[in-house]
Design goal:
506 residues; alpha/beta; Rossmann fold; 2 domains; six-stranded mixed sheet; 22 strands; 33% helix
């Protein structure tokens, strides 16, 4: 394969989902021996374009060329993931698609075509590729026991064994620590230097500047511009992506700290693994305070959320809201004025088949008389309310009747955030509140969280994005092996990162 040969190209591609236009003649060209970043707002069309390249979405019009093979509109009828994989396209998602109870070699064997499982054969293949591409990954552990970075490297190995030469990575650093992200960048550069073409989709513009050879900006389904490395700054990219240079968060950080509103007292709960079991969790969140919890995923964050919503039993300890001890469930917390924003965007409270308006009022179906009467929906008040929220939170499309299934991941997340913030009269427990959001939308969420704090609410934010927590938190804790470790006041990114990885303060 010649270096810098065009491996993947989309020309004037169009795609509609119902009445929503996702792509309006977008174009993109990716070469061998290149890391090409694709950036844009939520709903700009990035994931749709990636889905077309990988065979999961069939375009309405335009031309797609892969490895010299032209796929015209008439051929789109049979376009599929199997055909894309057969040509050499591989998609690595934000969330690992590996089977947790299998080892890495077993996962690769499971997805291999026409081969019986031979442990030594697949193990040696994994180890050889790991050596060639600096993709060090344990081969004897179950995937469930691997770190997020190890799982991602395993996904890359599987892609290469399948013959992947055009690799698409969608938000690849969203669940990685800073150290793991830096390691990934080294791996991607090694893959690039050996002739692979890499499409790198990310909202983290500083990372894009660091790793990409070329950067394409897409806005509202249109390709706006493409830039060579070093020719544009992160601030320039943000301004181009949103069509404005007014994208910075501007929120007062003044606060009035009050009495304890939410308290976890000696909380214990079983975990999916020994590492994630909750052990003696003690935490107080005061009114007018935003507390952040950082940590490598798999250290108890999911278990903590499951305790709050009542699907994981508390073995020992107490959960207290404004001096009242509660058995935590979604309903008991709602009655106490505490909202929960789930970190599970697929299963966490949105119903895809329902409309934006219906999802915004869904949790009030048993107690909100503004919108419900004897379990019947009051459609006119709901529609008025939904239009106000959609406008205020910049949800696209601006149609309250659009189904959540038709939304981009980022806009679906905006619906979740809006619903929980609107109903947080006492406090908010937010898990990964800005995951999948572009900078402009993330800034808007940060502004809303800080406004809640300023209004005297107690706010807890659990996030894998350390930069986010350092930006908005009054205090930061690290969750490691199911325990909470307090960070020093004004802790640096390096010291929090060290606590996350080793449990030791730097």
């Amino acid at each position: 394969m010649a270096m810098h040969e065009v491996l993947a190209e989309a020309t004037r591609v169009e795609k509609k989902f119902g009445t929503s236009v996702a792509l309006r003649g977008a174009s993109l060209s990716c070469r061998s021996g290149e890391i090409h970043a694709l950036v844009g707002e939520n709903g700009a069309g990035k994931s749709t374009l990636a889905g077309i390249f990988s065979g999961f979405i069939r375009p309405d019009d335009g031309v797609v060329t892969l490895f010299g093979k032209r796929i015209s509109p008439t051929a789109f009828k049979t376009w599929s993931p199997a055909r894309a994989i057969g040509l050499g396209v591989a998609m690595v998602y934000q969330r690992s698609m590996l089977i947790p109870q299998l080892t890495v070699p077993e996962n690769i064997a499971f997805s291999a075509k026409g081969l019986r499982y031979n442990e030594s054969h697949f193990k040696s293949k994994v180890e050889a590729l790991a050596l060639d591409f600096k993709l060090d990954v344990p081969t004897d552990c179950k995937v469930a026991d691997l770190s997020a970075g190890d799982r991602q490297r395993a996904e890359l190995i599987r892609s290469l064994i399948r013959g992947g030469r055009f690799l698409i990575l969608d938000e690849p650093t969203s669940v990685l620590t800073p150290r793991e992200a830096d390691s990934l960048f080294g791996v991607l550069k090694s893959l690039r230097d050996q002739g692979c073409s890499i499409l790198f989709i990310s909202h983290k513009l500083d990372e894009v500047i660091k790793v990409a050879d070329r950067i394409t900006v897409i806005r509202r389904g249109n390709t706006i511009s493409t830039h060579a490395q070093g020719s544009v700054s992160a601030a320039d990219l943000a301004a181009i992506a949103i069509g404005s240079d007014d994208f910075e968060t501007r929120v007062s950080t003044a606060r009035t700290e009050g009495l304890t509103k939410i308290k976890l007292d000696g909380l214990f709960a079983a975990g999916a693994t020994a590492r994630s079991a909750l052990s003696d969790i003690n935490l107080e969140i005061r009114s007018g305070e935003l507390v952040g919890i950082a940590g490598v995923e798999g250290n108890g964050q999911k278990e903590l959320e499951e305790v709050f919503v009542g699907i994981r039993p508390v073995l020992k300890g107490r959960f207290i809201v404004e001096d009242n001890e509660l058995l935590p469930t979604v309903r008991s917390l709602r009655s106490a004025g505490v909202s929960i924003l789930s970190g599970n965007k697929l299963m966490g409270g949105l119903v895809g088949e329902l409309t934006i308006a219906e999802n915004l009022v869904l949790k009030g179906s048993y107690d909100d008389q503004r919108f419900f009467s004897r379990w019947r929906m009051k459609h006119k008040p709901i529609d008025r309310y939904a239009k106000e929220v959609i406008e205020r939170c910049e949800i696209r499309p601006k149609n309250p009747s659009a189904s959540v299934l038709s939304l981009s991941g980022g806009n679906a997340q905006k619906v979740s955030v809006a619903r929980e913030i609107e109903s947080a009269t006492s406090g908010l427990l937010a898990f990964q509140p800005t995951r999948g959001l572009d900078k402009s939308a993330a800034d808007a969420v940060h502004r809303q969280l800080l406004e809640l704090r300023q209004a005297g609410k107690a706010v807890l934010v659990v996030s894998a994005d350390l930069d986010e927590l350092l930006k908005i938190s009054d205090r930061i804790f690290v969750m490691r092996s199911g325990r909470l470790l307090a960070c020093e006041e004004n802790a640096s990114k390096e010291s929090v990162g060290s606590l996350m990885l080793s449990g030791e303060r730097k």
